[in-house]
């Protein structure tokens, strides 16, 4: 059995969608204005975004985007940094990893 769908409630669907498309290659295949979007990755995983007024995920909640190499992790980190996101350099922890606060109120981990 494999999980193939996740719904995130976000404060800004358009900004969350643009972030996920720009940095992680997700593709929006359906949307209802600024209230709902359906994104797909290249493996068929479905990520839906629903607008909520107040979003408060637990402190440790995050969505992970694994990469194949440390160089890919570094490239994403550098691109986010250049685009003004508050990201720390990747570190070797449970993998080579860093976290970023995504627009819309959720955290993303990039790792290999």
TrEMBL record:
Instruction: Supply the SUPFAM superfamilies for this chain.
Output: Glyoxalase/Bleomycin resistance protein/Dihydroxybiphenyl dioxygenase (SSF54593)
Task: Return the protein name.
Answer: Glyoxalase
The taxonomy runs: Bacteria, Bacillati, Bacillota, Bacilli, Bacillales
Signal sequence, renumbered to the chain: none
Q: Which organism is it from?
A: Paenibacillus rhizosphaerae
Q: Which residues form the VOC domain?
A: 2-112
Q: Which residues form a coiled coil?
A: none
Q: Which Pfam families match?
A: Glyoxalase
Q: Which InterPro entries match?
A: Fosfomycin_Res_Enzymes (IPR051332), Glyas_Bleomycin-R_OHBP_Dase (IPR029068), Glyas_Fos-R_dOase_dom (IPR004360), VOC_core (IPR037523)
Q: Which branch of life, at top level?
A: Bacteria
**CDD domains, per database record:** VOC
